[in-house]
Amino acid sequence: MGLTINSNIPALGADRQTERANQLLNNTLRQMASGLRINRAADDAAGLAIAERFRTRIRQGQVEMNNLQSGINYAQTAEGGLSAQMDAAQRIRELAAQAANGTLTDDQRAALNAEAQQLVQQIGDTAENTEFNGQNMLQAGATVPVGTEGDLEVNVAASTPAALGIDTVDLSTQEGAAAALGAADAAINAIGENRAALGAQMNRFESAITQRQIGVENAAAAESAIRDVDIAQATMNRACAQILVQGGLAALIQSNVAPQNALFLLRG
Could you write out the DSSP letters of every residue in 178-221? Predict the structure, then answer.
């Protein structure tokens, strides 16, 4: 190419290459500052879409784990109320066995019956007052979904004196005491089955939490592989970009030599 003054093609080319190197440097610095390889959709449009899907799964998994933990807490609260009822029912059975003794007087049975009635009332109070977040669970039973995939839910059977069959316990007579033994046994069995069912549900929820923890961990690893920057690679890219920028600036300086040579000819 001949010597020209109006057009400096080498300078234009050097300027274009320098601008590209400067953009690479700025992008690398942005990645190192944020720790992310993808800071905007233009960095990797397809990768961003995939990473966002993984992030959605991570957030859903975290919410589901919280919901499952709430389900466990709900079941634990119900199980605590049932445990108190179990103690009362076992005491009623002891009193019934004692009242069935034919050697006792009517006054003695009346005293035993008074205690038994207090225990029956205690079981009723426990059913009425056992609540979780304002929701009663033992008064009429409850089926509470925990808001996760798989339709997991907490199921609690009603556990009132009437539901347990001990609301009519009467230890004032030997015959009533004998009948109360059977009623107490049935109540103890019902409470035990209710507690066992809750224990199985809590174990299921804990397994579901573990499953979701693994899913969240895997999704986070997949998102990181797409979205996060490799610091070692970014450091090398930064060094390369810095060299290219410096080289481009040097080329721009040298590209001004040709017009100066043309000017020298004109002066001649």
Answer: HHHHHHHHHHHHHHHHHHHHHHHHHHHHHHHHHHHHHHHHHHHH
The Cα–Cα gap between 208 and 201 comes to 10
* Burial of 227 from C-beta contacts in 10 A (0-12 / 13-18 / 19+): buried
State the DSSP H helix or E strand holding residue 136, giving kind and residue range, or none if neither: strand 135-136
Residue 96: CA count within 13 A, CB half-sphere? 24
Is residue 101 within 8 A of residue 171, CB to CB? The reply is no
Examine the pLDDT at 120 and tell me if it is beyond 90.
yes
* 40-44, 57-61, 76-80, 143-147, range with the lowest pLDDT: 40-44
Distance CA(80)–CA(132), nearest Å, equals 11
Mean pLDDT of 169-192: 93
Produce one character per residue of 191-213: b if its CB has 16 or more CB atoms within 10 Å, e if not: beebbebbeebbebbeebbeebe
The two tokens of residue 159 are: 């556990």
Please state, in angstroms and as integers, the Cα–Cα distance from residue 232 to each residue in 32, 110, 140, 183, following that order.
10, 85, 63, 74
In a 3-state reduction of DSSP, which class is residue 148? coil
Q: How do residues 181-225 score in pLDDT, each as one tens digit?
A: 999 999 999 999 999 999 999 999 999 999 999 999 999 999 888
Q: Give CA angle at 101 (99, 104), nearest 5°.
A: 75
> What's the maximum distance between 2 C-alpha atoms anywhere in the chain?
143
pTM (predicted TM-score): 0.76
Cα(233)–Cα(228) distance, rounded to whole angstroms?
Answer: 12
233: closest CA among 17, 12, 19, 32? 32
- Amino acid residing at 252: L
